[in-house]
Structures are given as C-alpha cells and as structure tokens.
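Much of what follows relies on a compact textual record of a protein's fold. With that in mind, consider the following protein and its fold in token form.
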Amino acid sequence: MPSSTSASSALRFALRAALLGGLVAGTMLAAVRWGPPAAPSPYMVSTVLKNERLRAIGSPKVVLLGGSNLSYGADSERIGQALCAPVANMGLTSQLGFRFVAEEALAVTGKGDLLVVALEHGTFRQPDPEPDVLATVVDYRPEAIELVPWRQRPRLWGSLGVLHLQSLHEYCWHWITKGTAPGYEERIFLPNGDLVNHLDAPVRHVAPPTAGFFDTLVIDPRFWTLAEDFVTRAQSRGAEAVFSFPCMAQRIHHDPVQRALKDSLVAHGLPVIGDPTHYVLADSLFYDSWYHPRRHGRAERTERLITDLCAAMPHRCCTNEGSVEER
C-alpha cells in the first residue's frame, strides 16, 4: 500500500509539472505569435533594412562588418563614391559577436566583393553572439535562424520566449499606468544601413570606461579560428576581406593595447589595413558612446578609412587612374 500511494503521488506531481510546463510553453508561444516584438527597438529592427540592402545590391559590393561603431560612424555613400561600388553597412551591435555577422555577410558574398571588418574591443573577448541579442535579430528576421548552429538553437528559442514575455509585460503595464503604448527613441537609417539622426544631436553623458577593460587585451582563441576561416571562405568566393579598426574616443585608447592587437592580427596572417591610432578622435566628437561619433567625427573616420583602403588596395580606389576600367 505505501508503495502504491508513493507511486500515485509521483504521478500526480509529474502531471502537475507537465501541465505547468505546457502552460508556460503555451504562454510563450502566444506571446511570440501575437505579442509585441521581443525587443521593440527602432535600432534593432534595422537588421531588416540592412539585410535587404545586402541582398539587393549584388556584386561587386563593399560590406562593412562590425558593431555600432560602423552603424553610427561610417558614411557609406562617401565610401561607395571613393571605391566605385555600392556599400552595405551591416554594423549593428558588438553583442552580436563576430561569428554571426561573418556568416551573415558570407551568405551573400560574391565575386569582386570587399568585406571590411571593424570590431570593438569586447568582440575579441567574446566572438560568439549574446543569446538575447541574437534572439532579437531572429525575431525580426526569422530566416536568420539558418545561420545559427543547431546546438545553439534551443537556448536561442528560450531567450526569444522570455524576451517576448518581458516585452508583453512592459507593454501591458505601460497601457495600464499611462494609457499608451511604450515610446522608443526615434532612429533614422538611410537605405545603405547608416544611422544618421544622431549626427547633430547634443553630446550625451557617457559613463567612464570600466576599469581593466580597455587597458587589457584579451582575445578568445576561438576568434582566430573564426577570422582565418572567414578570410579563406571570402577568398574562395572571389572576394577580398580586410580588418580595419573602429573609431574610438581618446578616453578609451591605450596605445600598448591597440598596438598589441594589430600585431596579433598580423601575426595570425590576417589582412590588416591602417593603424588603430589612425582612428582615435577627441572625446568631444562622440555622441552617447566612446564608439559613436557625431557628424565631424564620422566624416573624419570615413576619410581615414578610405585613405587606408586606397593605400592598401589601390585597384579598389576610383581616384587611381584606370582602376574603374579594371573593375
């Protein structure tokens, strides 16, 4: 009798657990299907525009890969004029790491393309995407799941469900307390993927750099495997890939760290253009991050990038006689 009672209790517990699990899963699915976006951000939704551009312009093209230093800090129209090729600015956030943005670009890389990589400091420490951030991209572009390894997808779907529930809670609470949907900062992107509404905005307060972060070089060993594979695969498609450097405020620049970074990239046989010190700008030229330049800083960074590209790859530069015909 005791064993029968124990078995019955265990069965009831299992049924309740299954019912609770099913209720949670059902709520998540409903939130994903009918609720507000996982991260209703006018910034992150730009992944749709950027990928439409990437696929629409064909080859040869120039693709800018990296984090927000590119989204905020590159004039793609000017770069396209200098290199006689359309540009897709794929820069979004450093939290997407290098693995995902590399796969995103390689999926549509063709003959004659130029892939320019400019990664923020933290991406070398963590080349894999943050699951919650990647889930946001997949929420806006479900087809992006094809770029994610199968072993990572369960964690990704879990993040997506939780984010949708959090977003739904925020949305409902805002309606209850304020009578309106939550408001979000306006973001204006050009069709080429450049963010522009910050260019003439007043400088915002930027928190001091975290101690021990920018003054220390940490490179995850996985980065080297990813980077070398990226260059090899780009070349196999008839494209060229080069590594450049992000624009950064003087406040976070540490010369020994940046020089060690460049030396490491070169030592691993990666194609590198320019020098990180070439992209260090005055603190006053930045908007709301040490990587987000305003109009003048953006123009400076763009011209310096063009200078480095044309010096290293004169066949790409329109200002070199005969270069257009050669293309």
